């Protein structure tokens, strides 16, 4: 990008829902080389706004809370307008390329207050992270006249906040192959979860010691081996319960439980309904799989 290719857009759409939820005041992708690029948070005309600005290349600086911070590739800041801060092009940098969004509305300030209280004003993100890619996507939409109402702005603003919240709470790690021992154990579970398998059976399939296997499985799958088996059984039971020809006892047996009462107890623990209630409750839409956290 060059200074001549800067893309910055502002919005003045009407609609009270924007204040109640969130909306976009401005968004842009800029490449700054001029030393006079400087924004004082107490000298701007914008009121009740939140600025998120992410460095793509080069270097910027920000003075906030009595300290000066360098902003290099992958670093973002989050500030409120008005507030006591200054950000500008670094004296040591040839340029500062960044993408930004200025938000307003209750949800924007809820996010700002919660995040800054817990973590401060700075965020580290990969360029491929959802919120950064969404900003580029939004710019493309705006430039092709696909954002034409305050409702679209509010939806895009809220989606950005949710993507940012998700990536901060659940940072993505690069895709990688599972360790061979874990892959073997999962294959074994998928083949035998309908039988009365135990932890020693799964450990044996992995070829590791119980201690090493349990730690490795928890690290890779974010669940203990037994919880992983249980969730697989529950999800298989959800499908079987949609067939009225299967009794609860038969469903229990087909997912590895000889005792239907124990199956009912486990099912209720995860689904918050007994198998019978789940099957007959007409106010609940049946599903084929539930994702648990």
UniProtKB/TrEMBL annotation:
<dbReference type="InterPro" id="IPR009057">
    <property type="entry name" value="Homeodomain-like_sf"/>
</dbReference>
<dbReference type="InterPro" id="IPR037923">
    <property type="entry name" value="HTH-like"/>
</dbReference>
<dbReference type="InterPro" id="IPR018060">
    <property type="entry name" value="HTH_AraC"/>
</dbReference>
<dbReference type="Pfam" id="PF12833">
    <property type="entry name" value="HTH_18"/>
</dbReference>
<dbReference type="InterPro" id="IPR003313">
    <property type="entry name" value="AraC-bd"/>
</dbReference>
<keyword id="KW-0805">Transcription regulation</keyword>
<protein>
    <submittedName>
        <fullName>AraC-like ligand binding domain-containing protein</fullName>
    </submittedName>
</protein>
<dbReference type="GO" id="GO:0003700">
    <property type="term" value="F:DNA-binding transcription factor activity"/>
</dbReference>
<dbReference type="GO" id="GO:0043565">
    <property type="term" value="F:sequence-specific DNA binding"/>
</dbReference>
<dbReference type="InterPro" id="IPR020449">
    <property type="entry name" value="Tscrpt_reg_AraC-type_HTH"/>
</dbReference>
<dbReference type="Pfam" id="PF02311">
    <property type="entry name" value="AraC_binding"/>
</dbReference>
<keyword id="KW-0804">Transcription</keyword>
<feature type="domain" description="HTH araC/xylS-type">
    <location>
        <begin position="183"/>
        <end position="281"/>
    </location>
</feature>
<keyword id="KW-0238">DNA-binding</keyword>
<dbReference type="InterPro" id="IPR018062">
    <property type="entry name" value="HTH_AraC-typ_CS"/>
</dbReference>
């Amino acid at each position: 990008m060059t200074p001549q290719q800067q893309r910055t857009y502002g919005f003045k759409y009407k609609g009270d829902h924007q204040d109640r939820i969130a909306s976009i005041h401005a968004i842009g992708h800029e490449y700054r080389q001029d030393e006079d690029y400087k924004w004082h948070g107490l000298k701007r005309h914008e009121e009740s706004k939140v600025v998120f600005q992410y460095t793509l290349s080069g270097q910027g600086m920000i003075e906030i809370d009595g300290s000066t911070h360098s902003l290099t590739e992958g670093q973002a800041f989050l500030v409120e307008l008005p507030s006591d801060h200054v950000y500008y092009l670094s004296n040591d940098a040839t340029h500062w390329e960044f993408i930004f969004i200025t938000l307003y509305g209750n949800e924007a300030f809820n996010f700002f207050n919660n995040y800054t209280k817990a973590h401060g004003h700075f965020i580290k993100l990969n360029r491929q992270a959802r919120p950064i890619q969404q900003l580029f996507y939004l710019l493309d939409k705006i430039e092709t006249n696909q954002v034409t109402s305050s409702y679209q702005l509010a939806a895009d603003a809220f989606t950005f906040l949710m993507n940012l919240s998700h990536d901060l709470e659940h940072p993505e790690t690069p895709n990688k192959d599972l360790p061979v021992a874990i892959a073997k154990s999962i294959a074994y579970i998928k083949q035998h979860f309908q039988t009365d398998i135990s932890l020693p059976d799964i450990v044996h399939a992995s070829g590791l010691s119980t201690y090493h296997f349990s730690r490795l499985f928890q690290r890779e799958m974010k669940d203990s081996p037994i919880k992983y088996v249980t969730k697989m059984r529950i999800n298989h039971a959800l499908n079987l319960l949609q067939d009225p020809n299967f009794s609860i006892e038969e469903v229990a047996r087909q997912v590895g439980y000889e005792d239907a009462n124990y199956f009912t107890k486990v099912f209720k623990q995860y689904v918050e309904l007994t198998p019978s209630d789940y099957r007959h409750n007409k106010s609940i839409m049946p599903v084929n799989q539930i994702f648990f956290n």
